[in-house]
Amino acid sequence: MTDTTTETRSGAGPTRARPRSRPAQEGRWLAWVFLAPASAVLLALVLWPIVYSMWRSLFDRTGKEFIGLGNYQRIFTDPDTFTALKNNLIWVIVAPILVTVLGLIFAVLTERIRWSTAFKLVVFMPMAISFLAAGIIFRVVYEEDPNRGLANAIVTSVHDIFNDSSQYPGARPRDAEALPAADAGGFASAAQVEPGTVLQIPLVGVGADELPEEPTLATPPGEAAADTVTGTVWFDFVRGGGGTPGEIDDGEAALPGVVVQAVRDGEVVADATTDDSGQFTLEGLDSGVVQIVLPAENFAPPFRGVSWLGPGLVTPSIITAYVWMWAGFAMVLIGAGLSSIPRDALEAARIDGASEWQVFRLITVPLLAPVLTVVLVTMIINVLKIFDLIYIIAPGSSASAANVIAVQMWAVSFGGAQDFGMGSALGVFLFLLVLPAMLFNIRRFRQEQL
Q1: pLDDT tier at 14 (50, 70, 90 boundaries)?
Q2: Is the N or C terminus of the chain more exposed, i.e. has fewer CB atoms within 10 Å?
Q3: Does 353 have pLDDT greater than 90?
Q4: Is residue 8 part of a domain?
Q5: Domain boundary at 298, 322, 356, which?
Q6: Which pLDDT score, from 0 to 100, does residue 282 have?
């Protein structure tokens, strides 16, 4: 067997390496034989599409006319594409930072709780869900109807704790001429009344679920004193039909809890709330006419929550779904880096009198900087090519407001426009955006192996 070592003789010229042995050469060729299939697949599925996309991006929609960098110029002038660029910038700034910060918090706090393994399992579990399934889940979570959407069910429940909902939302007077709608909301009598007057105020448009469980039958009011205005508010509807509109018929229900006000010269001089029988009495009225007002608080529609998937909130809502999915991934990576930190440095800082916040800020975070950087850059790569969540969650009315580059690339290519020149330009542009982050990650991995 030929010796492959290098020899240096005294007084001789520079060193000279002897030729490689035959087994080494054969092993090198064998390695290429095994790498050839994978290289062919890589060339066919990765390198060739990249090269062809670059070439196709230089042509127009039909692929017949060469337009040079015209498609790339349209990227920065087309309104839809500009919105996609703006949203991608929001994603790159917000989502990776949120995922990394939450992963760091979870990783540090789980070291201090008893059931850390169970907690990590729950936080990491969304990673087992596909983007399609997660998109469907959050599409339901963000439903605007509180009876279906979890987010609005929580919001409306909290809102109703601190704010009373209206008693009869959507109700209105039977006689719109006698009680027309007021400028400030609610209804105000067209004619002014004097103290001692007895009123009957029939309402319609009351939902069956808004009536008391055991409603009291409405009864006509009694006589009014000289300094009062009295009356009855009732639901002017007889089950099964019949009855005389504007009059209290048998079987018609009283409406308790309706606020009635007496207004004079724009000021409320008396108010009352109807009792279980629907009757009210405005007391202590001085001589002179007053206007009877049913304020808007009686009829205002209930709070139905937030339009999470509206144009203004659709992007933050989808980012929240993304953070829910990837916070567990960041927690696991950062937790692995946290376990490799030497405990001597942490204990020495505590012995020297450092608080837990100082230990975290001055010892833990600097030592975790390489791991945090890898997580942050990986998240940047992911959000640059985000597609699934936005395509599934954003409704048609908010699709343009939630648009990103990957979705726009699909839309112009396969969504009906069939503009493969513009789609290829967007694909190349997205590739150029992702490439620096990928190279940075590769460089970090190589440095760690040295």
Answers
A1: low
A2: C
A3: no
A4: no
A5: 298
A6: 92
Vertex 291: Cα angle to 285 and 297 (nearest 5): 100
Q: Is the pLDDT of residue 87 over 50?
A: yes
Identify whether residues 318 and 440 lie together within a single domain. yes
Query: Average pLDDT for residues 49-67, to the nearest whole number?
Result: 88
Residue 261: count of CB within 10 angstroms of its CB:
18
Residues 212 and 274 in one domain: yes
Residues 97, 145 within the same domain:
yes
% of the chain residues with pLDDT over 90: 35
Q: How far is CA 62 from the centre of its chain?
A: 38
Q: Is 234:199 a contact under the CB 8 Å cutoff?
A: no
363, 415: one domain: yes
- pLDDT at position 7 is 45
Instruction: Check whether residue 145 and residue 192 sit in a common domain.
Output: no
For 249-291, write each residue's pLDDT tens digit: 888 899 999 999 999 988 999 999 999 999 999 998 988 899 9
Quick one: which of 96, 121, 148 has its CA closest to 322? 96
For residue 272, which phi and psi values (nearest 5 degrees)?
Answer: -155, 165
What's the half-sphere exposure (Cβ side, CA atoms, 13 Å) at 91?
A: 29
Tokens of 63: 């692929």
Structural domain contains residue 121: yes
Name residues whose C-beta falls within 8 Å of residue 248's C-beta, 6 or more positions apart in sequence.
200, 202, 218, 219, 220, 232, 234
In a domain? residue 11: no
Measure the CA–CA gap between 248 and 236, rounded to whole angstroms.
Answer: 7
Q: Are 408 and 151 in contact (CB under 8 A)?
A: no
SS3 state at 234: strand
- Mean pLDDT across 389-402: 90
**Comparison of pLDDT for 313 and 23, the residue scoring more:** 313
Task: Collect all residues with Cβ–Cβ distance below 8 Å to 206 and sequence separation of at least 6.
Answer: 168, 170, 171, 235, 237, 255
In residues, how long is the chain?
450
Residue 35 has pLDDT above 60, yes or no: yes
Residue numbers of the domain that contains 128: 70-151+308-449
Question: Structural domain tally of the chain?
Answer: 2
